[in-house]
């Protein structure tokens, strides 16, 4: 969603954080005062320093005025990111000797003297260095010195007008520790960027930012995930599928299994997603890998996001089934990323998928599995909506998406943690059944939006030759209940499995 009543077509300046510039659709209006607010540890200093470094790269002088942190602390932050702050002026407003007893007086209220001296010190420093970009850290100190909202507001307004006359672009930082609900600055600032740090019950903290207001600029509203990495802040703009579309061929592609192609009607269509659902061990991952191999053999690029198991286990099992993935990883066709879902935000995952599709030309994406992805982020109430947006994006990019969803139980009523089948264009149902004293596997397609699919049930086996899908079996009942009943002998039943078969998902 984008906000603004009227838009400024004038010049913009970059913040130095590319994801934030994308959200702002080009950057900030120069010579304005902006509020950067967030609790301690949310990344304000890192973002502000990057803002000054971007100015230095453009030949603009920068000034960092600190009322709370020391120069050594700022230099330490810079070193942690590999930055050199040469030619950026760092100024501590309060020198160490100013805290001595000799500097105390009793004739005037301390706040009257200290507030005026502080503001005067800021003005003198700006006049002496003539910066183009200024960071003032932090306003909490000024708020405490002012002691009442009127004096505080008047001083901030005075600073704002002073900076405007000198054509300075200013970031003022506020750690929201004095009065978290104070909106005085929101009304004064030209724009407000809010940073948040959220702690989950398990896993890493999550960070997100929101552009609260930005006068005269078109920007992307809502929350956007970000992380603090070596080199600065990485912002992952919220994915809006309608902003991304490209032309692609809609001709169906084979899964590499004639029996599965027959079940699907014509195979898999570019720009659609398929959901493989069933109990653990029935063969969902193996079926997805077989479809992946078919695409790789056609020369397409693919991305595989592995949430559930270890990468080494997937590689070993696939090789044992005659589907070696290593050559495709080596030649750059296949990117497999093992993801610790407790460490990843939805925005970062969506950004990784975008990079794979737009920069690495992936035309097949596998998400294995949705259970781990959805469970890892219980605090994200709109995770299914984010998944809907991601699938819409992949559809508009002409990508074939394969999603795996595990179900609880093996026989009887099977239960899913989340019903995401309504998002799927195709749903493949994999089930166990019993016949002739053996546990066997069946596959059927219960939904496809792109073709008239086969409404039958086929048995399949997994062995050292890969996957084999048999002919349609008709003597079934109760498949959708989760407990298929094989009623009487059927010539389409496949030969009994022997002990050298390789089971596995």
From TrEMBL:
The EC number on file is 2.7.11.1
Q: Which GO terms describe its molecular function?
A: ATP binding; hydrolase activity; protein serine/threonine kinase activity
Q: Which CDD domains match?
A: KaiC-like_N (cd19488)
Domain KaiC: residue ranges: 11-249, 251-483
PROSITE patterns found in the cross-reference section: KAIC (PS51146)
- Recorded superkingdom: Bacteria
Keyword Cell inner membrane among record annotations: no
Keyword set, alphabetical order: Hydrolase, Kinase, Phosphoprotein, Plasmid, Repeat, Transferase
Under PANTHER family, the record lists: CIRCADIAN CLOCK OSCILLATOR PROTEIN KAIC 1 (PTHR42926:SF1), PTHR42926
Q: What is this protein called?
A: non-specific serine/threonine protein kinase
UniProt source species: Pacificitalea manganoxidans
